[in-house]
Design goal:
459 residues, alpha/beta, Rossmann fold, 2 domains, seven-stranded parallel sheet, six-stranded parallel sheet, 17 helices, disordered N terminus, binds uridine-5'-diphosphate
Length: 459
């Protein structure tokens, strides 16, 4: 059945945007949200995607999908070494992507006039392809502006001796990147650490050469970082987030969402009494950490909804590592699912806190729904986001990388039932109001989207 929120809006002027997401959940979701936003503005949409982690096209009957081969064999790459995966794909996808884009351009007609390519910046090879085909390329960076700049600063961090990380310096502040500490610097493990630096340099160069940058972010949250970004990247920059508040239609989730948790939340009598726990689509914990998390939750005495993704506990398929009778012993206080409809969960009145890994989508979703956080970052930009949440915006508690049941139990109580938690909730309410305002007619994201639309039409 057609989604009534989508169907009345049809492409009005034949202008087509071609989008090429990186095949990871946290990157696909915002790219598809941006596609929905642009569709609603009258553009027709074509999504070029790899077979690896391909989006569910049946959820988007209003888009056209063009799959391209990954160019590698099953088992040759996995998301466990993300850097190795994208380094490989930046080579193997060149030919298939070039052919696909060239065909889309040569098949143009008066009803379908391709006007711009929007890719993830990690696909840095696409700039050379766009140049060759004389077609404009814009970039959607799916992280916060602050973490993007911290990512670009990694070569400098190495030069200054902060990296590789040394145990004795972890608690030191990084004066070049306040409020970050050494332990918050982007750590992305890869079999070849030089690949990380090469990726950053290639991304930054091709972003500078692009026709513009789009962020799933809003101006009021990171004003000084946005100004810094404009100085470092002298191309048009658009901040039109949070996307999920502007985008109608399906979620873009790669995993099936278990809606049973919404009925479970409906049964909770007290508003804001449930801690929602989810560490995103990529993070993996050891069995020992999993047990610390489980006992921390159980001993806190608070109600919780916990997403345990299949295969996210090393060596287990799902919940085998839980002591037998664990859930029964909670007397209905806890509910576990494989994957949740996170937007609905965070917007639910029973939810009062979010224990998160601080992926940027999750962080932005929590801010938009006014839910204070407990921060447990794993890698990459999550570490930067967590520090901003706890020390800059002061809407969350940082676990300081300690996965210990006592610390967890204490932090949950501080977040859910203490005055300190209440103060964070109040600051979150103010931040949520700012989000609501930036999306309204005349607000910063609203205006930025207008400008982006005009810019895209101008190509
Ligand atoms: N998500 C979801 N259900 C879950 C957990 C996560 O739908 O049970 C969604 C969440 O709403 C977010 C995305 O998955 O949009 C995760 O992206 P994020 O940037 O937070 O983290 P990543 O998965 O990239 O580490």
């Amino acid at each position: 059945m057609e989604d009534p929120r989508i169907s009345p809006v049809k492409p009005r002027f034949g202008r087509e945007i071609i989008l090429f997401p990186l095949p990871l959940q946290g990157h696909i979701t915002p790219m598809l949200q941006l596609a929905n936003i642009l569709y609603a503005r009258g553009f027709s949409i074509t999504i070029v995607h790899t077979y690896f982690n391909s989006p569910n096209s049946s959820n988007y009957p209003h888009f056209s999908f063009r799959p391209i081969p990954n160019g590698f064999l099953e088992g040759q790459a996995s998301t466990v070494d993300f850097i190795a995966l994208v380094t490989l794909m930046n080579v193997t996808c060149v030919g298939p992507f070039r052919d696909c884009l060239a065909k889309l351009l040569s098949d143009a007609s008066k009803d379908r006039i391709p006007c711009c390519l929007i890719t993830d910046p990690v696909w840095h090879f696409t700039q050379a392809v766009a140049n060759e085909l004389n077609f404009p390329r814009m970039v959607l960076r799916t992280s916060s502006i602050s973490s993007f700049l911290a990512f670009c600063a990694l070569p400098l961090m190495q030069e200054k001796g902060y990296l590789p990380l040394q145990d004795s310096r972890l608690e030191e502040a990084v004066p070049e990147l306040p409020p970050l500490k050494v332990k918050d610097l982007h750590v992305i493990h890869s079999k070849d650490p030089e690949d990380v630096l090469r990726l950053i340099i290639a991304m930054a160069e091709t972003m500078r050469a692009s026709s513009g940058l789009i962020f799933n972010a809003f101006e009021e949250l990171e004003p000084s970082k946005l100004a810094e970004c404009r100085r470092s990247f002298p191309v048009p920059i658009f901040t039109v987030g949070p996307f999920h508040k502007l985008s109608v239609g399906p979620s873009g989730s790669l995993l099936p969402q278990d809606k049973s948790c919404i009925s479970w939340l409906d049964k909770q009598e007290k508003p804001k009494s449930v801690l929602y726990v989810s560490f995103g689509s990529l993070s993996i914990v050891s069995e020992a950490q999993f047990l610390e998390i489980a006992w921390g939750l159980a001993n806190s005495g608070q109600h919780f909804l916990w997403v345990v993704r299949p295969a996210s506990v090393r060596g287990s398929e799902w919940l085998e590592a839980l002591p037998s009778g664990f859930l029964e012993g909670l007397g209905g206080r806890g509910h576990i699912v494989r994957w949740a409809p996170q937007h609905e969960v965070l917007a639910h009145p029973a939810v009062g806190g979010f224990w998160t890994h601080n992926g940027w989508n999750s962080t932005l979703e929590a801010i938009s729904d006014g839910v204070p956080m407990m921060c447990m970052p794993f890698f990459g930009d999550q570490r930067v986001n967590s520090r901003y949440v706890s020390d800059e915006w002061r809407v969350g508690l940082h676990l300081e990388y300690k996965v210990e049941r006592r610390k967890i139990e204490d932090a949950i109580r501080r977040l859910m039932v203490s005055e300190e938690g209440e103060e964070m909730r109040e600051r979150m309410k103010a931040l949520k109001r700012t989000v609501d305002e930036c999306l309204q007619d005349g607000g910063s994201s609203f205006r930025s989207l207008q400008k982006l639309t005009e810019y895209l039409v101008s190509f």
